[in-house]
Design a protein that fits this description.
With 263 residues, this protein is an alpha/beta fold. 37% of the residues lie in helices and 22% in strands. It has 2 domains: 228 residues, Rossmann fold (3-Layer(aba) Sandwich), CATH 3.40.50.300; 31 residues. The chain is globular. The chain binds adenosine-5'-triphosphate. InterPro entries: AAA+_ATPase, ABC_transporter-like_ATP-bd, ABC_transporter-like_CS, ABC_transpr_CbiO/EcfA_su, ECF_ABC_transporter_ATP-bd, P-loop_NTPase.
Length: 263
């Protein structure tokens, strides 16, 4: 369980980026949303100890982040940053994914097993010899996920994992996230993409000016006045509501609902 208890974060500039945020998450897909500057990144960085609370407490499966190093916490919480291409420096995918486990001092056999597993989970089987810089945006995004997964973290933080990707690449990333969820990982998705929230999230956490203003199911989130938070309802929902169908999560559900209504 990731547990955030009444966390305040004040940067050296005096900026109060988090003002008493509390939440918990387990093995689920939670979308962390909110306007620019609302505190999403600041909150996410508390979950793997990159930032420590000014006040309050953060625990990762009972480990207080103040009492553990980022290296220790990174085996529990993996953070995939935005624009991951700047992360790669090895000559091939195998070496890139093996880098983290190698630093853990694991045997060559165990390293290879982890790389194999991580590449499979990220839908990158058969990419061992590829050079990271020759890969597409979607492949790089999945490679970044594989690198973090090879540390076998229980929880994953994904920062805008589909931004800038075409539909096909996005859906590979989405498939990879679903697969991880079904294998017992908890995933925190930081995003401005409301279509992605609708498609993938099980729960939504909305921040506004450093405060948690909503924490609940996706359907309830989309019934909020999202304009007040600089967010837009997905087109799919606007169409389904216009058609009198109500809440749907995919084009397929919309079509089924319309077909059902017509019978
Ligand atoms: N290192 C820092 N020093 C001082 N202030 C910071 C620092 N990092 C972030 N802030 C401020 O803290 C507030 C929250 O920033 P944060 O990056 O957490 O927001 P965000 O919701 O992730 O925004 P975005 O959607 O733009 O990525 C903002 O006002 C930001 O300017």
């Amino acid at each position: 369980m990731l547990r955030v208890e009444n966390v305040w974060h004040v940067y050296e500039t005096g900026r109060e980026a988090l003002k008493g945020v509390s939440f918990e998450m387990g093995e689920e897909i939670v979308a962390l949303v909110g306007p620019n500057g609302s505190g999403k990144t600041t909150l996410a960085k508390h979950l793997n100890g990159l930032l420590k609370p000014t006040r309050g407490r953060v625990t990762v499966d009972g480990m207080d982040t103040r009492e553990h190093t980022v290296a220790e916490l990174s085996t529990k919480v993996g953070y995939v940053f935005q624009n991951p291409e700047h992360m790669f420096f090895e000559e091939n995918v195998f070496r890139e994914v093996a880098f983290g486990p190698r630093n853990l001092g694991l045997s060559e056999e165990e390293i290879e097993e982890r790389v194999r597993w991580a590449l499979r989970a990220a839908n990158l089987e058969g990419y061992w010899e590829r050079t990271p810089y020759s890969m597409s945006g979607g492949e790089k995004q999945r490679l970044a996920i594989a690198c973090v997964l090879a540390m076998k973290p229980k929880y994953l933080i994904l920062d805008e994992p589909t931004t800038g990707l075409d539909a096909r690449s996005s859906s590979s990333v989405i498939d990879a996230v679903r697969k991880l969820r079904s294998e017992g990982h908890g995933i925190l998705l930081i995003t401005h993409d409301m279509d992605l929230v609708l498609e993938l999230a099980e729960r939504v956490l909305l921040l506004h000016d450093g405060r948690k203003v909503f924490d609940g199911p996706v359907e309830e989130f989309f019934s909020l006045e999202l304009h007040d938070f600089g967010l837009e309802k997905p087109e799919l929902l606007r169409i389904s509501e216009g058609a009198g169908v109500g809440f749907v999560r995919s084009v397929r559900e919309l079509v089924d609902a319309l077909a059902g209504g017509a019978v």
